Amino acid sequence: MSSQSNRAGIALFLEYPLADRGGVSVLVEELILAFGEEFAVWLISPDSSEDVLKSPVGHLLEGHVRFVLTHLPPSGRYDELASSLVEKLKEAGIKLVHFHCGGTFGWGNRWPGRSMPRAFSRAGLKTVWTNHLTEPAAKAFAARGRSKRLSGALGPVGRLGKILQTRAVDTEIAVSEHDRDYLQAHYPAGRALKRIYHSRLRESILASTSIREPLILAVGHIAFRKGQHFLVRAFLEIAASVPDWRLEIAGHDGGDGCWQEIQSLCASHPQGSRVNLLGAHSRPSDLMSRASIFVQPSLEEALGLAVQEAIFLGCPAIGTRVGGIPEVIDEGITGLLVEPGSAEAIAAALTRLISDSGLRQEFGARGREAILRKGMTAPRMADAHRSLYLELLA
């Protein structure tokens, strides 16, 4: 890890291991790559420090604290954990902390007045919070084995907790216009939220000029909320009429049963062998450069990093009208939008693009410029965070 200490100290909080390579982890890694030499960056995450040191960003970090949130409020142990971490980071010279939350609820913010960001703010540190997904208040206390009725009854408590957490931080960020508007409507805290588009794209990367295969592609961990089961149903519906085409889905098993449902669908269908579950893939961009159609069939999505990258690389896209996906796909310009949860709608969009190679070429040719115009690149993301950090630290 870095040994320089004359830079402003900031700490990035990550709920998931860096090695998970999920969307939130990848974006935190991008911020470390951007700021590791400009700020004294500490990472707070469940990783072992040994694993962090071996990671691609280990040499850029000033320090790492392994932290697993084992207790939640109203447990008194939660307050002890928060206080201990506050003191540790203050001793390390940290001036600003940035909490990354995989949803709307995390880091104990569901309990009114007891969130970890509030503890840091009260200790005099500048605090930033990023919501990487929006959720209804009923999700605040949702847990395996807990009834939906009980979770719903506790929703108002979680809603108040979220509102108070937003008021406690100096700046709250959403990763799409949709999510910013949703948060301000459902968790009104009397203050404006900031929108920063997230991306891992380098502006120097050019769209692929490779010959594209009759391949339909989806990338992302396999889970019901990602909607891949609807995509599989759609492809199987039209597969017999497009015998040269196949479907590949890259991503690890999210563990909620969606992977098994897809396997079952394919096993019981005569065209099922043309669907390939690839598992986690180290270079999804290679797949995107070969594919002729990319599909983001999500039921909920904050922005959609995978579809953003596919469009940037010149692959025409189909996406659902949820979250920030319509901000990534320009309807009729770089791709097509469909209603979520509809295999029939996805099948119709696939049929349209498969049957019209000229339209696919038009969509693909416009993709890179469209993403650049929106500012959906890693340098633009870094610039927005840099400006925010410097403003708060001034």
UniProtKB/TrEMBL annotation:
Residues 212-369 form the Glycosyl transferase family domain. Residues 22-189 form the Glycosyltransferase subfamily 4-like N-terminal domain. This is Glycosyltransferase family 4 protein. The keyword Transferase applies. Keywords: Transferase. CDD domains: GT4_PimA-like. GO terms for molecular function: glycosyltransferase activity.
